Amino acid sequence: MTVNFGGRNADHIGITGYALASCVGTGRGAHLDAITTGRSGLTPCAYPDLPFDCYVGHVAGLESMQFPAGISDFDNRANRLALSALQSDGFLEAAGKMRERWGADRCGVILGTSTSGIEKLESVYRGRTRDDDPLPDDYVMSHNDNHQAVAAFTQKYLGLSGPSYTISTACSSSAKALIDATQLIETGFCDAVVVGGVDTLCLISLNGFEAMQLVSREPCRPCDAGRNGLSIGEAAGFLIVERDHDHCIRLSGMGESSDGVSMSTPPKDGAGAAVAMRAALAGAGISPDQIGYVNLHGTATPTNDTAECAAVSNVFGSDTPASSLKGMLGHTLGAAGAVEAIMCIIALEENLIPGNTGLGELDPDISCDIVAHTRTAELSHVVSNAFGFGGSNCALLFSQ
Amino acid sequence: MTSLRLYLNKVAFSGPDLDSWEKLSEVLENDSPWARSSEWDPSPAILSARSARRVTPQIRLALTVAEQLGDSLGSDAGWVFASSVGEGETLHVILEALRTPDMMIQPLRFQNAVHNAAAGQWSIAAGITGPMTSIAALDQTAGAGLLKAALQVSREDRPVGLVVYDVPMPEPLNAKRPLGVPLGVGLSLSPTAGQDASAAIDITLCREPPTAPSQLASTALQATGNPVCDFLPLLELLSRKATGQVILGLHGGSALRLDVSAA
After folding, report:
1. In 3-state terms, chain A is what percent helix, strand and coil (to 5)?
2. CB B102 to CB A51 under 8 A?
3. Which of A44, A90, A203, A391 has its CA 20 to 30 A from that of A105?
C-alpha cells in the first residue's frame, strides 16, 4: 500500500528502539504478556500514611535496585524508575549504537513528566519538624523535583549532549515529547533523539486526584457502565527516534489542540480531542478507515470516557476498534503518552488489538467499538490519544 | 549546518518597574540603571479581578506577557510557555498540606498545580483552541522555549507566541533556588516577513558559551538569578534596533546562535 505522508518523513525517521517499565513488569515481554492475557497490574495501595484506600499501578523492586555510583546525586524514585526501563531489553546497547552512529552532540533528550522526582521533595518536606525549618543541606532541587531532573539524569546516564528539555503538560506530556523529537530531527537540529515519559506514584498525585473525587476505590474500569474514577500508576517508557531508518515503525502523524474551556473537564463532545485526531490523520495523509485501532486516553472517569468516545466515533466512525490500557497499567499521568505509544508499537508488531482490561458491562453512552478482549488483526496504522489538565490534547498516529 | 529563520513581530516584557517592552527598551537604549523599587504583582487585563485572585502570581505574570503579544497573533498561532520552576507557590501550599494527617488539597489548587497551568488558563481566558505546550529546562529554560518555538514556526509553518516566565518560590524552596524577582519575556514569531516584522532571527545550533548582558539594567536583572534573563542580550540588541549575534544556552552543553538582522 502506498502511503502519502503529506511531505512528512522526508528524513525517513523511524523508531529504532524502546524500553518500558510499569506495574505489569519490566521490558517488552511482560507488556506483551499483559496485552495477550489482559491481566491488570493494579494492586491495593500500600502507600504509608495515605488517608484513603485505592488501587495503584506500583512498580515493585525499585528500592532495591543498585543506583549508578558515579551519579548517585540523582538517586530518587523517578530516576530509579527511569533506570529500570533504560536497563531493560538491550536499550543501553541500542542507545550506545545511536551515539556512536551520530555523535553525542547530535543526540537530543526530550522527556515528558508531570511530577519528575517530586516524591523525594515530599518526604523532605514531611521530614521537617517546624514550619520554618529549611530544606536539608544535601537536598538538590535540580536533580530531584525540578521538571528537567529526569532528562538531566537520562542525558548523563546515556552520555548524550544534544539539545534537551522537558515537556510538562500534565497527562499529555510524553506524547507531545515525540512530536518535539520528530521536529528536532526534521529541522536538522538532531539526528536522533531519546524520548522518555516518566512519572512515579506520589502523595501529590494521589491526594490531588482524590480531592477532585476522581480516584476509584477499586481497580479502574474504563468505558464500563459502573466506572467511578481512575487508578493512578507509575511507569517509564523510552523510545529512540532516528533519521535514515526506513524499515521500522514510525510516527506518521501527530495532532495537538487545546480545549480552551476548562482546566479539568473536556467539552461533552470531545471537540478538542477530535481536532487533534483529525490533525494527526491529515499530517499522515491517511483516511479514518485506514486506522485499525485507537488507543483511548480512557481514564475511567465518568465524563472523560464518554467525551473521548464521542470524539473518536465522530472522527473514525463507530466501528473502529478502540480500547483503554488504563485498567491494565493505571493512569501513568505524564508517562502515559510514551508508555502507551510503546504499547501501540507492540500491538502493531504483533498484530494484536489490546483488550479493554477491567471492562464488565459497556456503558450504553459509549459510542465507539470497545474491544473487550485482546484479538488478532492485521494492523497498519494505529492512533494513540493522550489528554491532560489545561485542556491539552495530543493524538499520535503510528504506522508500519 | 541547519539554520531556521524566524521573523519577530512583537516583544513583550513584564517585571518590577518594567511592565512593558517599551519601558525596558527605553532603559536599555539609554543604558539606565534598574533597581527594584517596590513589591509588584502583575495583574492581567484579560482576567476579572475575581478571576485574578483565584490564580497564582505565576499565572498572572504569564498572562500579562501573553496578552501583550495577543493582538499580533491570529487564531492559527501555536503557543509555547516555558518556565524553569512553574507553579512554585502552589507546589509549596500542597507540600505543606501533605504534612498534615488528612493531607487535604484544595481541588482548584491541584488542577492549577500542573506546569501548564498558565498555558491552560491563557487558552481559557483568550478562547484559544490551537496547539499549546509548556516546557522546562532548568537554567536553560529560555533557550529551550525559543528552540521549541522555532521548531513549531518552521515545521508547522505557523506563527507562535512564546512566553517565558519565572516567579520566585516561597521559603523554604526559595533558599534552594532563589529566582530574585518575577520576570517574563514574550516573543511573537512568524515564518514569513509580514508588515509588523521588526527583525529576522536566524537560529543555528552551536557549542559556544552564552552571551552575557552588558548594560547596567540587564546586568542588575541578571544578578537576580531569574533564568528568564538569558534573553537580555537579545533584548539589548533589539532595543538598539541593531544587528548582531547572541548565544543562548541549552541544557546539556549545546547552545543556540541567533543572528539578528533587519526584517
Report:
1. 35, 20, 40
2. yes
3. A90
